[in-house]
Specification:
This protein has helices at residues 32-41, 54-66, 84-96, 117-133, 146-160, 180-189, 205-213, 243-254, 258-273; strands at residues 16-21, 44-50, 70-74, 100-109, 138-143, 171-173, 191-195, 219-221. The protein is an alpha/beta fold and 285 residues long. Helix 8 (243-254) packs across helix 9.
Amino acid sequence: MSAPDTPPGIEPLPGLVDAHAHAWSRAFDGDRAVMLARAWSAGLRLIVEVGVDVSTSLGALQLARRAPRVVAVAGLHPHEARHLEREREALAALVGGGGFVGIGEIGLDFYRNFSPPEAQYAAFRWQLALAREHALPVVVHSRAADAETFEVLEEWSRRVGRYLGREREIGMLHCFAGDVALAARYVELGFLISVPGTVTYPSNTRGQEVACTIPLEAMTLETDCPYLTPVPRRGERNEPAYVAHTARYVAGLRGIAAERVAQTTGQNALRLFGVRAPERPGSRR
Ligand SMILES: [Zn+2]
């Protein structure tokens, strides 16, 4: 039986984790509490809230402090990299204050180039060092920069090794848009591959091949809400509950039970971020 606030069409899938969300976004200012309640009704046991600069990272932390099953990640997005000098001290202090489970989203975006490439490289490298310093995993954004991002992460991972322990990955490629071969190389380096709702779009055959081929133990699922809404909600605002649609779609692609996709990808996210979530998924606290 689903709770009254479960959106129509969502059958709960216990164990799910939305591994990359922006619930601090103004898009949720009118109904944030109701939206979060829908996520718990859909079976989510954790939402990973990711910042794009100091103020949104603080917003993510504040949300995490209010909601027991929300955790926060702090970082400067490649779009904001040109503001590194302005943000650096405050970001270091914010992370140093504790409470975050990762550094992100960081990386390279040569599609929009809102910040010059040199500024993006500088912010990316500085934050990789910050992650190592605080023993936190990284959440990586890479767009139109497949080769460049891989080069930076390969060099970095060779230097730092499995600094979070043998069993634990050192980061995730959020909204992974590369091909199967690139995904395999990242998995080898110790990264998880995060599959977004766009995998459900009929034209996204590359994303579907990745979601079908990579080991389930190397996969997380995410919404990147309020963006990238999966079918059947495509065109609407995205929200964490809809990660259930993505899980069912991936299960269909792989020909396995949706419950297994939810449980395994959820466990992967918990392991990456070093989070122990409540035993009773869906319970209200
Ligand atoms: Zn994002």
